[in-house]
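Quick one, T. Sequence first:
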Amino acid sequence: MAEKLKSIAVYCGHQFGNNPDFARDAAKIGEMLAKNGIKMVFGGGNVGLMGTVASAALENGGHVTGITTHDVVAKQEPMHDGIDAFEIVNGVNERKQKMFDLSDGFIILPGGTGTLNELTDIMTMQQIGETKKPLFFMNTNNFWGPFARLLVHMKQCGFFVRPQDYNMQGATTPEELMKLVLNYRA
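Structure tokens:
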């Protein structure tokens, strides 16, 4: 029997962005992960969408693990207190690997270059067959629409050759996204 997802890494911005819907959806996802007994892994900070999703999970009885780097700590970015586990690693690549190892799948919320880097690393691993772990896009206010168009453009130009190599799903509401997560079987 296929297993349900037990832990999810949430990749998102350490800023709020300029649309309050981003934070609203981040909070709803944190709440729903907690209420469905799915452990959350995130970047460890108590800032922006990152802090919002973690706080919502914790406020609803969720289990949350934070992974950050020595460089982020040195910048005095506030770390989220109250989480179950916290680890400081040497750099971004070690952080991404640790988050990958602790997670059965990934939710991608709006974010900046860090979020994009985390996302494309997982996509590359899917492409070359290193993982089948799923990616779930929270497409709040069509935030990921330009990225989807870029993938279509890459396909048209012959660079995104085998879309079946990727395990990606998207949703426009937190409820739709959680339905995808809860119905997914590895």
